[in-house]
Amino acid sequence: MTELPKPPELAKRGGCWFESGGVQLHLGVESDFRPAKKAHPALRCRDYPALLERLRDGGIEVNEPDDIPGVRRCHVHDPFGNRIEIIG
Fold it and tell me: Could you tell me which of 31, 30, 26 has the C-alpha nearest to residue 16?
């Protein structure tokens, strides 16, 4: 994803915006931050097997549940402890 410049008035609040194709991701900041252990975004990945291999090669712990029939997905945690779901 490519980082986008935020409008000046919004940039004062912190956070950052990213874009890839027609998708934007806006991230905010909070002074009393606590990582989200359960709540999470889910992102669809075009080449799921390659991404999982890259994550694992990079030492990222990947939890790949098999609890939704016909759906391949995993959970990872960002460097701050937030949970992220990736769907293949």
Answer: 26
**CA distance linking residue 23 with residue 21, whole number of Å:** 6
Reduce the DSSP state of residue 23 to 3 states and report it: strand
Every domain of the chain and the residues it spans: 1-32, 34-88
Three-state DSSP class for 81?
coil
> Six-digit token pair at 57?
């090669």
List, for residues 12-63, the tens digit of each pLDDT value.
999 999 999 988 999 888 888 888 778 899 999 999 999 999 999 999 999 9
Global pTM reads 0.73
Fold (topology level) of 34-88 = 2,3-Dihydroxybiphenyl 1,2-Dioxygenase; domain 1 (3.10.180)
Q: How far apart are alpha carbons 84 and 36 in whole angstroms?
A: 9
Give the number of other CB atoms < 10 A from CB of residue 43: 13
